[in-house]
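Please produce the structure of this protein holding guanosine-5'-monophosphate.
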Amino acid sequence: MTSPDGRDGPCIFCEIVAGRAAAHRVYEDDRTIAFLDLFPITRGHVLVVPKRHVDRLTDLRDEEYGDLFRALAKVCRMTERLSMDYNVAVNQGALAGQIVFHLHFHIIPRYDTAGPFATTPRTRIRAEEAQTVLRSLGDVPS
Ligand code: 5GP
Ligand code: ZN
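Below is the modeled complex.
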Protein backbone atom coordinates (compact mmCIF):
# COMPACT_ATOMS: atom_id res chain seq x y z
CA MET A 1 0.00 0.00 0.00
CA THR A 2 1.06 3.58 -0.53
CA SER A 3 1.69 5.51 2.65
CA PRO A 4 -1.65 7.16 3.41
CA ASP A 5 -0.09 10.40 4.53
CA GLY A 6 1.46 11.21 1.18
CA ARG A 7 4.98 10.04 1.91
CA ASP A 8 6.73 8.74 -1.21
CA GLY A 9 6.17 5.38 -2.83
CA PRO A 10 4.76 2.08 -1.69
CA CYS A 11 5.22 1.22 1.96
CA ILE A 12 8.29 -1.03 2.25
CA PHE A 13 6.87 -2.95 5.20
CA CYS A 14 3.61 -3.62 3.31
CA GLU A 15 5.79 -4.88 0.46
CA ILE A 16 7.53 -7.27 2.89
CA VAL A 17 4.16 -8.40 4.31
CA ALA A 18 2.94 -9.10 0.77
CA GLY A 19 6.13 -11.01 -0.06
CA ARG A 20 7.09 -8.58 -2.81
CA ALA A 21 10.17 -7.39 -0.92
CA ALA A 22 12.69 -9.66 0.74
CA ALA A 23 13.25 -9.85 4.47
CA HIS A 24 14.87 -12.24 6.92
CA ARG A 25 11.71 -13.42 8.67
CA VAL A 26 11.95 -14.26 12.36
CA TYR A 27 8.26 -14.75 13.19
CA GLU A 28 4.91 -14.68 11.44
CA ASP A 29 1.27 -15.23 12.36
CA ASP A 30 -2.01 -14.07 10.81
CA ARG A 31 -1.69 -10.49 11.97
CA THR A 32 1.97 -9.88 12.76
CA ILE A 33 5.34 -10.36 11.15
CA ALA A 34 8.85 -9.89 12.52
CA PHE A 35 12.06 -9.67 10.54
CA LEU A 36 15.66 -8.59 10.97
CA ASP A 37 16.35 -4.88 10.60
CA LEU A 38 18.29 -4.28 7.39
CA PHE A 39 20.65 -1.86 9.16
CA PRO A 40 20.88 -3.40 12.63
CA ILE A 41 21.91 -1.23 15.56
CA THR A 42 23.18 -4.42 17.21
CA ARG A 43 23.33 -8.09 16.25
CA GLY A 44 19.79 -9.49 16.34
CA HIS A 45 17.95 -6.17 15.93
CA VAL A 46 14.40 -7.22 14.98
CA LEU A 47 11.33 -5.29 13.86
CA VAL A 48 7.88 -6.51 14.94
CA VAL A 49 5.22 -5.22 12.56
CA PRO A 50 1.42 -5.51 12.37
CA LYS A 51 0.46 -6.76 8.93
CA ARG A 52 -2.30 -4.19 8.57
CA HIS A 53 -0.82 -0.86 7.60
CA VAL A 54 -1.16 1.76 10.28
CA ASP A 55 1.19 4.65 10.80
CA ARG A 56 1.00 4.96 14.57
CA LEU A 57 0.54 2.91 17.72
CA THR A 58 -2.61 4.90 18.45
CA ASP A 59 -4.12 3.92 15.07
CA LEU A 60 -4.71 0.26 15.91
CA ARG A 61 -8.19 -1.06 16.59
CA ASP A 62 -8.82 -2.09 20.19
CA GLU A 63 -8.89 -5.78 19.29
CA GLU A 64 -5.49 -5.57 17.54
CA TYR A 65 -3.38 -4.59 20.55
CA GLY A 66 -3.54 -8.00 22.21
CA ASP A 67 -2.33 -9.93 19.17
CA LEU A 68 0.48 -7.50 18.50
CA PHE A 69 1.63 -7.53 22.12
CA ARG A 70 1.55 -11.33 22.31
CA ALA A 71 3.65 -11.54 19.14
CA LEU A 72 6.02 -8.92 20.54
CA ALA A 73 6.49 -10.98 23.70
CA LYS A 74 7.23 -14.11 21.67
CA VAL A 75 9.92 -12.35 19.71
CA CYS A 76 11.28 -10.92 22.96
CA ARG A 77 11.60 -14.50 24.24
CA MET A 78 13.56 -15.36 21.11
CA THR A 79 15.74 -12.29 21.65
CA GLU A 80 16.48 -13.53 25.17
CA ARG A 81 18.40 -16.38 23.56
CA LEU A 82 20.85 -13.70 22.42
CA SER A 83 20.78 -11.39 25.42
CA MET A 84 18.57 -10.77 28.44
CA ASP A 85 19.26 -7.06 27.98
CA TYR A 86 17.43 -5.33 25.17
CA ASN A 87 15.43 -2.24 24.30
CA VAL A 88 11.88 -2.38 22.95
CA ALA A 89 11.16 0.90 21.22
CA VAL A 90 8.69 2.65 18.96
CA ASN A 91 9.76 5.80 17.14
CA GLN A 92 6.63 7.80 16.59
CA GLY A 93 6.85 10.71 14.18
CA ALA A 94 9.77 12.14 12.23
CA LEU A 95 11.13 14.14 15.15
CA ALA A 96 11.32 10.93 17.16
CA GLY A 97 13.31 9.26 14.39
CA GLN A 98 10.53 7.42 12.55
CA ILE A 99 11.58 6.85 8.95
CA VAL A 100 9.22 4.01 8.00
CA PHE A 101 5.64 5.16 8.54
CA HIS A 102 4.20 1.72 9.14
CA LEU A 103 3.99 0.96 12.84
CA HIS A 104 6.79 -1.25 14.16
CA PHE A 105 8.48 -2.16 17.41
CA HIS A 106 12.25 -2.34 17.49
CA ILE A 107 13.81 -5.04 19.66
CA ILE A 108 17.48 -4.17 20.10
CA PRO A 109 19.65 -6.64 22.03
CA ARG A 110 22.38 -5.13 24.19
CA TYR A 111 25.70 -6.85 24.74
CA ASP A 112 27.98 -4.28 26.30
CA THR A 113 28.08 -1.44 28.75
CA ALA A 114 28.34 1.36 26.20
CA GLY A 115 24.71 2.25 26.90
CA PRO A 116 21.68 2.34 24.62
CA PHE A 117 22.31 5.86 23.42
CA ALA A 118 25.90 5.34 22.30
CA THR A 119 25.93 5.75 18.53
CA THR A 120 27.78 3.39 16.25
CA PRO A 121 27.77 3.35 12.45
CA ARG A 122 25.08 1.10 10.97
CA THR A 123 25.85 -1.08 8.00
CA ARG A 124 23.54 -3.21 5.90
CA ILE A 125 23.30 -6.76 7.22
CA ARG A 126 25.03 -9.41 5.09
CA ALA A 127 23.07 -12.52 4.11
CA GLU A 128 25.46 -14.95 5.88
CA GLU A 129 25.34 -12.87 9.05
CA ALA A 130 21.53 -12.81 8.89
CA GLN A 131 21.43 -16.61 8.62
CA THR A 132 23.66 -16.93 11.71
CA VAL A 133 21.42 -14.57 13.67
CA LEU A 134 18.28 -16.44 12.59
CA ARG A 135 19.84 -19.69 13.82
CA SER A 136 20.70 -18.09 17.16
CA LEU A 137 17.16 -16.76 17.60
CA GLY A 138 15.90 -20.29 17.11
CA ASP A 139 12.37 -21.62 16.89
CA VAL A 140 9.31 -19.57 17.74
CA PRO A 141 8.29 -20.37 21.33
CA SER A 142 4.75 -21.67 21.83
P1 5GP B 1 12.20 3.83 12.34
O1 5GP B 1 13.34 4.79 12.34
O2 5GP B 1 11.13 4.18 11.34
O3 5GP B 1 11.65 3.56 13.71
O4 5GP B 1 12.83 2.44 11.93
C1 5GP B 1 12.80 1.92 10.64
C2 5GP B 1 13.77 0.79 10.62
O5 5GP B 1 13.54 0.04 9.44
C3 5GP B 1 15.23 1.23 10.58
O6 5GP B 1 15.92 0.67 11.70
C4 5GP B 1 15.75 0.71 9.25
O7 5GP B 1 17.07 0.22 9.33
C5 5GP B 1 14.77 -0.39 8.92
N1 5GP B 1 14.53 -0.59 7.51
C6 5GP B 1 14.35 0.36 6.56
N2 5GP B 1 14.08 -0.20 5.36
C7 5GP B 1 14.09 -1.53 5.57
C8 5GP B 1 13.89 -2.67 4.71
O8 5GP B 1 13.65 -2.54 3.51
N3 5GP B 1 13.99 -3.88 5.27
C9 5GP B 1 14.25 -4.07 6.60
N4 5GP B 1 14.34 -5.31 7.04
N5 5GP B 1 14.45 -3.02 7.44
C10 5GP B 1 14.37 -1.78 6.93
ZN1 ZN C 1 2.68 -0.37 5.28
